[in-house]
Amino acid sequence: DLEKIKNSVLSGLVTCVFVGLFGFLGWEVIRHRQNTKKQALLRQTDEFFQQHGGQLLLEMMKVEGNVGFTLYERGQIETATNNFDKAHIVGEGGQGTVYRAEIDGTIVAIKRCKEIDESRKMDFVQELVILCRVNHPNIVKLLGCCLQFEAPMLVYEFVQNKTLHELLDFQRNRSCHVTLGTRLRIAAESADALAHLHSLPHPILYGDVKPANILLTEELVAKVSDFGCSTIDEKTQVAPKGTPGYLDPDYLLEYQLTAKNDVYSFGVILVELLTGKRPLSKERKTLTSMFKEAMTDGTLIKLLDSDIVNEDNLRVIHQAAVLASESVLDYSRYGKARDEVCGRAASATCICR
């Protein structure tokens, strides 16, 4: 019996040794695979960083000095968005997807851009350096970026409320009432933001001015957003971009972006604010053509949103309509001059007052 017990104990010990050995080997295999995956991810992360011009950006930031711009790590972005959980999405458009996230206790908006063409790598890096210096109360601040993903991630300040597009929809559905003063103030703030972008030493051409890209704070202060993939050099030939109804007809001829194109789109927004109508009707008749006819035959009052029409407002509405007319109907006369765009913004501000 003693011999049997000894044999059983010995057999159990041998079994334990083998189980432990196989367990250890299994753990080593798993750890080796994890390390291999980790190394592969690090290599891929570095490749993406180089591919998007990360090294160039670092060098340019050293030359520029303190630009107040942060290069975020991949892990920070993944944690902040919970690995890009759909529940964090607050907006989607032609240029990318926007996520609401929190980094170091601050709520931010993370925009996942479309992939950057290799030929535009230098342009993209230069634009980031310029964009991070843009500081205006009516422009969403670019805080930093992460270049360690397949597509660049841009990190912006987060604006908590709604877009002008949503506000206009609420107005059309009579869910809320937006006064003429509020509408013109939003127009003035938007125009001032665009004028600022156009007046920089390296002018930034927005290229997709529309209500969905104008964010509104809780006090309905306008903040132009989503300009992280805009064009800085107006001589650059760009691929077709923009939104039907807001596109300058001149741009559709050569796909060459100019400051004038942004002025035209701003004019469409101003007409939309005055009339409460969409830029394209179901009959595909443009709001600008309807506006042109109304201005020509003196029937503008019929086109205006009835909520803002009264005797006290007519003079101001007429001034705003003339400004809109200059932007969308006679836009060819205004060329590309930045001072004319600034003048347009000043006019809008005066009308608002």
> What would the CATH topology of the largest domain be?
Transferase(Phosphotransferase), domain 1
Classify the helix fraction into a percent range: 40-55%
> What number of structural domains do the residues give?
2
CATH top level of the largest domain? Mainly Alpha
The tally of helices reads 12
Backbone structural class: alpha+beta
Give the overall form.
elongated
Low-pLDDT residue spans: 331-342
Query: What's the CATH H-level homologous superfamily of the largest domain?
Result: Transferase(Phosphotransferase) domain 1
- SSE topology string: HHEHEEEHEEEHHEEHHHHHH
Name given to the CATH architecture of the largest domain: Orthogonal Bundle
Oligomer: single chain
The count of DSSP E runs of length 2 or more, i.e. the number of strands, is: 9
Radius of gyration: 28 Å
DSSP strand content = 5-15%
Please give the largest β-sheet.
6 strands, mixed
Q: Round the mean pLDDT to the nearest integer and report it.
A: 80
Q: Within the largest sheet, what's the order of strands?
A: 1-5-6-4-3-2
Distance between the termini: 106 Å
GO molecular function, one term: protein serine/threonine kinase activity
Pfam families: Pkinase
Keywords: ATP-binding, Membrane, Nucleotide-binding, Transmembrane, Transmembrane helix
GO cellular component, one term: plasma membrane
Summarize the structure.
This protein is an alpha+beta fold. The protein has helices at residues 2-51, 54-64, 74-80, 121-131, 164-172, 180-198, 251-254, 259-275, 287-297, 300-303, 314-328, 338-352, and strands spanning 70-71, 89-93, 96-103, 106-113, 142-146, 153-157, 162-163, 214-216, 222-224. 49% of the residues lie in helices and 12% in strands.
